[in-house]
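Here comes my example:
=====
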Amino acid sequence: MVVRPKMNLEQYLPVLLFILIGTAIGVVPQVLGYILGPNRPDPAKNSPYECGFEAFEDARMKFDVRYYLVAILFILFDLETAFLFPWAVTLKQTGMAGFLVGLEFVVVLTVGFVYMWKKGALDWE
């Protein structure tokens, strides 16, 4: 006769609660928005819209690369400036060394921005 140890399900209760609460936080607002939100469709709202270009032209038309370049530069600089928030929060703990490293980061960011500006990457025409 094989004796199996009794499984303690109480250990899994926090994990189960975490999964249920996380799912509820993700699903309940969407369901409430669908139920309570206004629904007044019109032809303009139902039309497809992508990348700032009209959707009623030829699907094989060439896109201007400058639009994508500006979008990529925006994401790049946006992510880089997001690093400034944790740096500012921990500035007291890091002291002068942390300040100088942050200053170097900002200088490199500024040099890159000026370089892109001088190259005309931010100009539409």
Observations:
- The mean pLDDT is 83.
